[in-house]
Write a structure and sequence with these properties.
Layout lengths: L4 E6 L9 H9 L1 E8 L9 H17 L5 E4 L2 H11 L2 E7 L4 H16 L3 E5 L21 H11 L38 H6 L4 H14 L4 H4 L12 H5 L5 H14 L3 H23 L21 H9 L5 H13 L4 H14 L4 H11 L5 H12 L14 H8 L4 H6 L19 H6 L15 H17 L2
Parallel strand pairs: 1-2, 1-4, 2-3, 4-5
The structure holds a DNA duplex (15 and 15 nucleotides).
Amino acid sequence: MPEQTVIMWFRQDLRLGDNPALLTAIEKGRVLPLFILDEGEDWAPGAASRWWLHHSLSALNESLQGNLWVLKGDAGQLLPQFAKDHGASHVFWNRCYEPSRIARDSLLKQTLKEAEITPGSYNGSLIWEPWENLKKDGTPYKVFTPFYKYAISNNPPAPPSHISIQNLDSVECSQDADRIERLGLLPKINWYEEMTATWQPGETGARQKLEHFIENGLYDYRKGRDFPSKRSVSMLSPHLHFGEISPREAAQAVKQAGEIDTNEEQAEHFVRELIWREFSYYSLYHFPHLCQENIKAQFNRFPWAADETNLLLWQKGQTGFPLIDAGMRELWQTGYMHNRVRMIVGSFLVKNLMIHWLEGARWFWDCLVDADLANNSCSWQWVAGSGADAAPYFRIFNPVTQSQRFDPEGSYIRKYVPELAGLSNKAIHDPSSVAQEELQQAGVILGENYPRAIVDLKESRVRALDAYKSLADQG
DNA sequence: CCTGGAGTTGTCCTA
DNA sequence: TTAGGACAACTCCAG
């Protein structure tokens, strides 16, 4: 009897290591690795994500000895037919948790079963399934810390699999050699030079980032992660999003390194951040509307400004606030932005400019290589104050104060806003309030080579506070 | 039920 | 210069 053909449907698990669906597929028969690009999905990948996906697929294909099959179109339609055509007995995948994908996948399971093909789905992307870790009354946590404490003490994270998969004997791919190019994921204009310098999509690149973090960032993570020029952060977010490394593997590696180097406290903080990612998936699973609607309904009455001009200036990094502009340009050039700066540019858009958080979420979605529906939506709702956690609404970041505190020497600003490089460490945080003479010496001409501040921080802060207050007054 | 403590990530003013 | 309280008062969660 010939060996069974088992389709391994890769989605956001573009790796061979610690991949439960793949491990099960290998046990069951001969693996046919497949990826399907479905452009009709809600929140289809933005330009930066597509760039990443192209390279990640190429890397995966290489580690599969060129045997990754590729399709383009509606997975719900294509997959059952493809499975039939190849006489597959099973189709395995790791779960995705976006609402539309949950619906699509459960329908697909039904279709496959009717065709007498056995489907199987696994957890390859999360430390915990989102339906785990409920409160005693069976409802989900809405606040991070109680969720964190409960999950850590009741369900210690399971260790990753360390089975190494090399030279996998998979079904030979008979598709054209340029099938990945023909997905059309790369943009026509070559805007991605900076991205190539910053990133190496794929499993190998992910491991390198992890090791680099363990060696260079971990010892100082707790405090250093707040300083955008320090790069004490892991830079793992896009790798985690595309599943090039599992969160379990990252957590275990960092914890073990922490024990060896007595950096337990630092390691714990890193794992805590990974669990924030868990909490975002958990929240999206239990509250699927949060990617388009305010969790707190009173925010539906918020007087958002429909200000195309300010939105564009924010997007292009031309607000006149150097830290904001540095962050927005980092995003544009590298597909990434340091976490603290994300909070600050987010607060600025939503509170100082009073532009709807969804506008920010959409822009991030298109620009970020780590664009992730759960993380992006939850984080924007948190910044806006419309999310489930009860952060006091009067928390408004001051981009100048934050800049002085977290980029005291202006090195992050100088990197991404080079026209200000000649200003002193003191002056660089707020050129609009610097004396004409000093600006001139540094070659800065406000309104010509660097914009004047587009809003008054004090005024706009008061305006935002009043707007938030009016929501409370009406109940 | 009721109660009290806590809540990722702040800012500003005053003493 | 720095530390501490006000902001305004909500919701969540555990006991």
